[in-house]
Amino acid sequence: MNGWTASDIPDQSGRTAVVTGANSGIGYVTARELARRGARVVLACRDATRGKAAEERLRAQAPGADVVFAPLDLADLSSVRAFAAELPGDRLDLLVNNAGVMALPQRKTVDGFEMQFGTNHLGHFALTGLLLPRLHEAGHGARVVTVSSGLHYLGTVDPRDLNMEHRYRRWTAYGRSKSANLLFTHELARRLTAAGSPVVAAAAHPGYAATNLQTAGPRMEERAWAERLAELSNRFAAQSPEHGALPSLYAATAPGVRQDDFYGPRFALWRGRPTLSPRAGWTRDDTASAGLWQASERLTGVAYSWPSA
């Protein structure tokens, strides 16, 4: 794992990948590098204009790449269902649950969920459940990689107030949504193992990578000073999206990745080559992960199907 870079990605020819939020940042880099290694990549993006522009940009940077844009709004469960139903082809080897929002002012999804929990966790929970039969069929080598954050340490999920209706705090809401990503991965890994499925569920985080996540919240509230501060921090303190994408790419492609592994930058959860990352103990709590799973099935209406063990 020492010194692992994108050039170490194994050949992905014949494999199909879905990357959510692939129009910019680490999602775009993840999609591009998978395509460069021969994968067919579906760019699952909310904004059609940006998604199609990303497809054109990727084709220019990786001539001959097999990529296609498909609309997906994780904050709208009807969009998630439509994406899964209309995804072309039968084969799916890799799902990278990358898209997310961070530290937004209080908002709700189309279905009435707190925006960060609804987008970062529930949307991906539903998407994974709807696509899991295809991953089962792909067999050995199929993976689900969910992108969390080192900031999951800001808080765990409160089962009594999943949508933070009691007292909304933007950074706590973000931390809870990222803890939800890890609890989801933990429970998915347990259930895949129990079912005898060859699909591997792992997670990753980019450290501090320069993306538009940091500026979206301040821009929504027209806090120019905060947006400018985020831009300066991105410029002088963050690592590039190319480096931020490495943990996701490692989790998605490297040999030896195990159920419930969590990868991130090696230096202080911040920057550097990918390695196994520390995580809060609550993200491995079986009772909490099972409770979140049951709540997620109820809220999304998506029940997972499993192969016979």
Automatic annotation (TrEMBL):
CDD domains per record: retinol-DH_like_SDR_c_like
Keyword Ubl conjugation: no
Keyword Oxidoreductase: yes
Keywords noted in UniProt: Oxidoreductase
Pfam family, one: adh_short
Domain of life: Bacteria
SUPFAM superfamilies associated with the record: NAD(P)-binding Rossmann-fold domains
Segments crossing the lipid bilayer: none
Gene3D superfamilies reported in the protein's UniProt record: NAD(P)-binding Rossmann-like Domain
InterPro entries hit by this protein: NAD(P)-bd_dom_sf, SDR_fam
Family label: Belongs to the short-chain dehydrogenases/reductases (SDR) family.
Protein name stated in the entry: Oxidoreductase
Originating organism: Streptomyces gamaensis
